[in-house]
Amino acid sequence: MAKEEGSHWSHVLKRRIAVLEKDERNEEEKKAEETELFTKYYTEWRSGVETDESYKTIPRFYYKLPAEDEVLLQKLREESRAVFLQRKSRELLDNEELQNLWFLLDKHQVPPVSGDEAMINYEAFLQVGEKAGPKCRNFFTARVYSKLLHNDPYGRISIMQFFNYVMRKVWLHQTRIGLSLYDVAGQGYLRESDLENYILELIPTLPQLDGLEKSFYSFYVCTAVRKFFFFLDPLRTGKIKIQDILACSFLDDLLELRDEELSKESQESNWFSAPSALRVYGQYLNLDKDHNGMLSKEELSRYGTATLTSVFLDRVFQECLTYDGEMDYKTYLDFVLALENRKEPAALQYIFKLLDMENLGYLNVFSLNFFFRAIQEQMKLHGQEPVFFQDVKDEIFDMVKPKDPYKITLQDLVNSCQGDTVVSILIDLNGFWTYENREMLVANDDSSNTVDLDET
């Protein structure tokens, strides 16, 4: 076959060459023809004459948004979006339909039981799909079945795992529709005010927040919204894609507050819980010694263990949004989120910007030395023998292993998985002390664990 194709092309090529060789026109005649054709096509183009109208068959895919003064068109668009979202909502399984699906799955389980798990094979799976109704059609596919197929010797899947998969999908679609109702622009993202409205109206549905006073609602909403925007809007565009909100775990944490029996440990570790929000706001009030609702540099210096260096705090007030040299609650929340989550890329980006004084896009030996000098000064104030910068610098570069041996970029810090340790060494005396005494601290932890084991 390949030989025949090769032979065909060789014949075509030979014929083309033969035609060119037979062209007995001289160069001037050929040039005149080229000029004539060029003039013809150029004239058609300039006059707007279109010979090719194939573009008219392309369906329209872009619709211009109505302008601000086109009130009627805006209202029409809002109403059509609302109708569309309502239709999508009706396509989802309701509680009664989910219950019916569970009964069908349970009725079609295939023995033997695997541990405590009821199982179903592919044939029974398809039978349930036929009986479950049109709303369930997308769940009963070979692709879904293969995703849930693990090591069952009979080629079955767990009924509970499949049902949880359906529940999760329904929840995701419900949540997406719920969030889209607050998408005023209708572009698939939420602005800060949109997300504030969503969370404010969500509060009454979360039993774990029943104890919050209404006067605290605005501070709670601000606290909750800041976490979304700090981590999901690193470029500070003022908007977050709904898709990104659904993909992260923050909404799960927020909706976890529906659980009336949520443990104390879970509440303390959940940024959105009432105890956590009250803790952060309480810290802010305690730092605000002059009770003007804002924090000065001196007031912020008492944050945490009061061991952040003055040089680092200077950079915070230089780079972050302040009002007459003082920090408001929203800016404070960004500060807290960065320092409490130093392992996260968004937090490292926040701190890296403060360390990168000259906005070079990297940290060099000069910038490391500049910040570490403040650590050395704090050590002297506490009666400690300062550590040589050269030793610390070598350890930092060994930990990070940057692509350029003289420059540390943000990506280098993230890739090294040591970024939290590096920034702690440079901005916080307590963080540096913890790093310097890490072996002793590990030994103490091991010995205390040994004591606990002996006591048991």
What is shown here, in short?
The chain is an all-alpha fold and 456 residues long. The protein is built from 23 helices and 4 strands. The chain is extended and about 100 Å long.
Describe the protein's architecture and organization.
With 456 residues, the chain is mostly helical. The chain has a two-stranded antiparallel ribbon. A two-stranded antiparallel ribbon has the order 3-4. It has three domains: 72-179, Recoverin, domain 1 (Orthogonal Bundle); 185-287, Recoverin, domain 1 (Orthogonal Bundle); 304-456, EF-hand (Recoverin, domain 1), CATH 1.10.238.10. The protein contains 23 helices and four strands. It holds the Pfam family EF-hand_13. Its main location: cytoplasm.
**How many β-strands, per DSSP?**
4
- Total tally of structural domains: 3
Cα-to-Cα separation, first versus last residue:
80 Å
Please give the radius of gyration in angstroms: 33 Å
Structural class: mainly alpha
Quick one: biggest sheet? 2 strands, antiparallel
- Looking at the overall shape, the CATH architecture of the largest domain is Orthogonal Bundle
User: Which spans have pLDDT < 50 for at least 5 consecutive residues?
Assistant: 450-456
How do the SSEs run, as a string of H and E? HHHHEHHEHEHHEHHHHHHHHHHHHHH
User: What would CATH call the class of the largest domain?
Assistant: Mainly Alpha
Number of helices: 23
Strand order of the largest sheet: 1-2
Overall shape: extended
Kindly report the average pLDDT value: 89
Protein name: Serine/threonine-protein phosphatase 2A regulatory subunit B'' subunit gamma
Keywords: Calcium, Cytoplasm, Metal-binding, Nucleus, Repeat
Organism: Ataeniobius toweri
Main location: cytoplasm
